[in-house]
Amino acid sequence: MEIRCPLPVRMLLARTHFARRGLTSLAGASGRALCTARVPRPGGPMASSAGLALRGQTLVVRGGSRFLAISTASSDDDCIFTYDCSAAEKKSAPEDKGEDGQPVDKGSDTILASTFSKSGSYFALTDDSKRLILFRTKPWQCLSVRTVVRRCTALTFTASEERVLVADKSGDVYSFSVLEPDGCGSPDDQFVLTADRDEKIRVSWVAAPHSIEAFCLGHTDLGLMDEGGSGLWWPLDGTLRLWEYRSGRQLQCYDLASLQDPAEHQGHKGLAASRIAFWEQESCVVLLCECVPVVFIFQLDASRQQLGFRQKLTFPHRVWDVVFEETQGLWVLQDCRDTPLVLWRPVGGQWQAVPEGAVSQRLCSHLRASWAMLEGSVGADDGFRSLYKATFDNMTSYLKKKEERLQQQLKKKKRQRSPLPASPEQTKKACPGQSALSC
User: Fold this and answer.
1) Which of 186, 265, 381, 393 has the most CB atoms around its CB within 10 Å?
2) For residue range 64-82, what is the model confidence (pLDDT) as tens digits?
3) Nearest Cα to 125, choosing from 72, 90, 164?
4) pTM over 0.85
5) How far apart, in whole angstroms, are the C-alpha atoms of residue 292 and residue 286?
6) Helices and strands (H, E) in the chain, number of each type
7) CA 81 distance to own-chain centroid
8) Is 118 helix (H, G, I), strand (E, B) or coil?
9) 94 cis-preceded (ω within 30 degrees of 0)
10) With b meaning 16 or more CB within 10 Å and e meaning fewer, what string describes 396-414?
11) What is the rounded end-to-end Cα distance, in angstroms, of the chain?
12) What is the dotted CATH code of the domain comprising 9-90+103-270+368-374?
């Protein structure tokens, strides 16, 4: 196993390079069980999908380069906050060039990941232009725009809210101070959990990131983690797994395909888990599948350390994202302009859609007015394609070049064996007697 050497400890105070292992997700941890899952392996360019983030009664809906922050409080006025990353400051630098000497694509301003801090006081996002943008939420204000080394796919705040951990898909994890450049972390944030494209989860000490406490092994594909740092985890191999992550022991495993009827996922290579959320009030785990309008509901029994399957929710439209509001239920963002947001709650042991009330009408009205923000996600493919290991079939091009080389060698040999036709002057010199008679 290869691990990049850690930087000096003083670098942990501002911007820390944790590890390089093809990382796809990360989360802070202090003592919860870990829940993971997996999906099939596609390929192709990275796509961006619409997403949700919620803390307290502040709901953020993002799409493309913009996000919209709305209050879910019934008594709140129509006060919203919007932000467009294309208007954020960009670092002026000389034109970067790749190994071939061609200019490197600077990327779009599309938001790739976003999250709230634990108290909801801060909100952070990363975009395709390699920026980390930090906001204060009470009131909303952009605090800083910082440049990251690579495009980042995951981020989370520490429990102390003094640092934000940012990870890119190549496996580098950096720690940024929220406010003070030289601030240090709280000892309550013991571990950082990282997932990579080598099918394993690492549990590392935050204070000494090169020291790995445990591995959670068993998945057969890359994995992703709840960006809120709740300790919930889903890999991309069609399974949902519960771990005791401190020791790396697997407690339970669900095959998601077994929860579906065979006819329900025809035309799909497998169930790709794209989002997981945990409702602490009801101990519910919700798993959303990519490109399939299905949401799985599980019940977590913490005392027995067991997950129980409860219900499968199906939708007439593609579901982009899900998020829990502690006092309300499950908000579902779907590809439907008429009803982009739907609220679900458990009623009598069964999850049901809540009839549209004043809050839902107000939120849907705002989203319909800002539908251009979400149009880029309509019909978009799997948003995690770029995280998968790419396989290259170079045999076709190799055999083609080999055939061309053999043909060239064959033609060269033929030219060497057959003499060139003689010129008329050479013919006259070869036959002097014939020339004399003609005179």
Assistant:
1) 265
2) 889 999 988 876 666 889 9
3) 164
4) no
5) 14
6) 4, 28
7) 25
8) coil
9) no
10) eeeeeeeeeeeeeeeeeee
11) 92
12) 2.130.10.10
